[in-house]
Amino acid sequence: MEFKYQNGTMDTGRLLGVDTPEVHTSNDPAEFEGIPDNDAGASCLRDWGHKTSEFARSELAGNTVTIMLDKREGPRGYYGRLLIYIRDDGKLFNYQLVKQGYARVYDSDFTKQDRFYDAESNAQQNGIGLWECRQTQQTTQPPADDGGSDGKLEVSKLHIDAAGNDHDNLNEEYIVFKNTGGKSLDISGWTIADKAGHDYYVPSGVTVDPGETVTLYTGSGSNSASKLYWGSGSAVWNNGGDTIIITNADGAVVLEKEYTG
Known about the structure:
By secondary structure, this protein is α+β, with helices and mostly antiparallel strands. Helix content is about 15%, strand content about 25%. The protein has three helices and 17 strands. A hairpin with a 5-residue loop joins strand 11 and strand 12 (about 200).
């Protein structure tokens, strides 16, 4: 989680006691008790990783929250991130991730582990959230249609340096994508990410027709056929240079574009 203090400085926190499925790297189903250790299990976990990201954005993005440390942990981990609990609207967000099946318990010496394990056990027994992946069956699917030579998503325009402070003008940070092929592209479930691992999950029902464009704005708004909104609480794209990475719904990279400031 990235957050901003009242004085305007930024920091990053690692949520204590939870481990969610990966969206940018491969998942190891063996880490999630009872989920089949095969491609189907890994794919199911990846889908729930995206759902977890969407849940976190919808619950926390732009909110003022309480951040708490644990007397047995931290305050910072190996990568320099704060090890934290987040309380929002009176609820412990870390706990909600486990209770609602968006995460497994990440075992460490944190003080609330007994409560978390009880919630995890209930979610497992009732197939809540990612634990539905325990019922996943391995099937053979035809190759994913990511557009191929008939449809191709390319970066048409970059506008990543907003006027003034980027964090205060989020919808002036945007990227325009264009379908340069001759075939419509259904980009539902695709992921648009930067090199640092910030990711946007394209909602269902988004199709880009040949020659048409779709613009991804960093801030908030109402999605339409030609406009998508990340819903981020802070700027995403580095003005000095970054890499745009797009993966399709099966996790295959269909575009990787590096830009400089």
